[in-house]
Design brief:
Blueprint lengths: L1 H30 L5 H27 L5 H37 L5 E2 L9 E2 L1
Antiparallel strand pairs: 1-2
Helix pairs in contact: 1-2, 1-3, 2-3
Length: 124
């Protein structure tokens, strides 16, 4: 029974990371429409994986002594590898999928000649 609870907890955590990446991509698409697709997807995945892992890194650094450097460095390397794997396997595909789906329904915007006040093109 404990294994089932552990597997469901891990699966739920991965789903939350994917949902966070997708939500950030959606927010970036709405709030920063001039960003390129690559930039939106990269930053959404990076923030989605680094925000929760910052707590883990902080707890690890606080609880372990730096006096014994070899195990400390190995543990830091393992945490960095886990962060990269989570970002590349969970967050990046979720962010890319949401951005691709939003690209299919994004309306084509008309351009106005220029903004008389600022002298630059604006979106309508």
């Amino acid at each position: 029974m404990d294994n089932i609870v552990t597997m469901m907890s891990v699966g739920g955590g991965l789903a939350v990371l994917a949902a966070l990446a997708g939500g950030l991509t959606l927010g970036f698409e709405r709030l920063l429409p001039r960003w390129s697709r690559k930039k939106r997807v990269f930053w959404a995945a990076a923030v989605a994986v680094l925000a929760p892992m910052a707590v883990v890194f902080g707890a690890y650094v606080r609880d372990n002594s730096v006096v014994d450097t070899a195990p400390f460095i190995i543990g830091l390397f393992v945490l960095t590898a886990i962060t990269l794997v989570l970002g590349l396997i969970v967050c990046l595909p979720a962010a890319w999928f949401v951005d691709r789906r939003m690209g299919e329904v994004r309306p084509i915007r008309a351009r106005v000649e220029n903004d008389a006040e600022h002298g630059r093109p604006i979106d309508v």
